[in-house]
Structure formats: C-alpha cells, structure tokens
C-alpha cells in the first residue's frame, strides 16, 4: 500500500494544480483582452455594458466546465484504482473465459456450450500455432469436462497453450462453430485506460468484463 499511495494521489494533485494555473492564466488573458477592447472601442459607438456581461458570463461558464472536467477526471482515476484493487482479489482464482489455456500435464477444465438443436458435438483442440491437434466427439450438453491433453493415440501432448472450438451438428450437418470457454488461473490484474485487464497463466490477457465465472483454483 505504501508504494501505491503516491501513484494514486500525485496525478490528481498535479492535474488540479495545472488546471488552477491554467484558469488563472486564462482569466488574466481575458482581463487583458477586455482592457484592450475597452481602450480601442469607438467613442461614438461604445460597447454596451450588457455585451461585457455576456462575455464575462461566457468565460465563467467555460471556467466552471474546466473545473467540472478536472473533478470528473480525478473521480474516474479513484474509481479505476478501486476497481483494480477489487480485481486484485481475483488473483490466484480460476476464471472461465474464452481464451487460450496453459497445459502443463494437468487436465484443463472446459465449459462447452453446444448450439441449440445440436444432437452431436465435436471438441477440437489447437496448439499455440493454430494447428489442430485433437478432435473428439463429446456429449451435446453444457456440462463442464476435463481435457486430458492427449492425442488420438492417448499419448500426452507437449506443454504449452491450447485453445478449443466446438462444432455443433444436427443430423450430421454442421450448424455452428464456437470458441470454448476454459478455466485458467489469474496471475495478475492490471489497470489500463480500457479498464481492468487480467493476465492468465500462460500469458493470455483478457478484460475483467469477459470473465463469465470464477472459482477457487484446483476445483472442478
């Protein structure tokens, strides 16, 4: 927490200071422009006092908008840090997400979701290069299953990242091909301009909003 505090507080203070300095500078510029305008007005056709009031009101409105934007930026920064702190509690848990999973000899839990009307489903596994390594028929249901990481002859596949797709068939006709969600352990939570990102075991990075389920590591 000691190392985080300067990171979260300094930008807000710096932004507020810079905005205040900018507003002060702009106000001084406005006064100079107003003075020059008064000095160079046509004595026979002077500027109406109501025009000055309109100009001042316009500047005040801009000033308030700048201050509002500064406050909103500070609030967004605070909410972003709070969101990342909450997601940090996910580190060490397993997330169900459509992303490549790391295989190191232990089975990978998959969550296939056959298309509506499918009477047959085929699970296809791909290695990190995108090459197909296994193809097996599974039950046409949404129940989770453990992928053992073996080839057609039962020999273990090499360690690495694998992704999965599910082919859904009806009466022998392919009706859908979908990415299969997997359970992968979360190793890091990162705050970015696009929200909180989660780094999974194996290196895949996904948005926290893409996670559809969480569970304790090691559960099946």
UniProtKB/TrEMBL annotation:
Keyword RNA-binding tagged: no
Alphabetically ordered keywords of this record: Bacterial flagellum biogenesis, Cell projection, Cilium, Flagellum
Pfam families for this protein: FlgD, FlgD_ig
Domain FlgD/Vpr Ig-like: 104-171
Functional description taken from the UniProt entry: Required for flagellar hook formation. May act as a scaffolding protein.
Family: Belongs to the FlgD family.
NCBIfam families attached to this UniProt entry: PRK12813.1 (NF009453)
Protein name according to UniProt: Basal-body rod modification protein FlgD
UniProt organism field: Sedimentimonas flavescens
């Amino acid at each position: 927490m000691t190392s985080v505090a300067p990171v979260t507080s300094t930008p807000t203070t710096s932004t507020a200071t810079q905005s205040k300095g900018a507003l002060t500078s702009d106000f001084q510029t406005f006064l100079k422009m107003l003075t020059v305008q008064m000095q160079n007005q046509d004595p026979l056709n002077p500027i109406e006092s109501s025009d000055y009031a309109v100009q001042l009101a316009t500047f005040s409105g801009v000033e308030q908008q700048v201050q509002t934007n500064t406050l909103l930026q500070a609030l967004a920064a605070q909410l972003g840090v709070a969101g990342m702190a909450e997601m940090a509690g996910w580190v060490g848990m397993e997330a169900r997400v459509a992303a490549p999973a790391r295989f190191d000899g232990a089975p990978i839990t998959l969550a296939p979701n056959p298309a509506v009307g499918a009477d047959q489903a085929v699970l296809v596994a791909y290695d990190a290069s995108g090459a197909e390594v296994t193809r097996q028929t599974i039950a046409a249901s949404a129940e989770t299953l453990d992928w053992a990481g073996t080839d057609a002859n039962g020999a273990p596949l090499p360690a690495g990242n694998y992704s999965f797709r599910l082919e859904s068939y009806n009466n022998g006709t392919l009706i859908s091909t979908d990415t299969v969600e997997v359970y992968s352990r979360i190793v890091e939570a990162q705050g970015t301009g696009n929200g909180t990102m989660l780094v999974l075991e194996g290196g895949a990075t996904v948005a926290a909003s893409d996670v559809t389920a969480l569970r304790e590591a090691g559960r099946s």
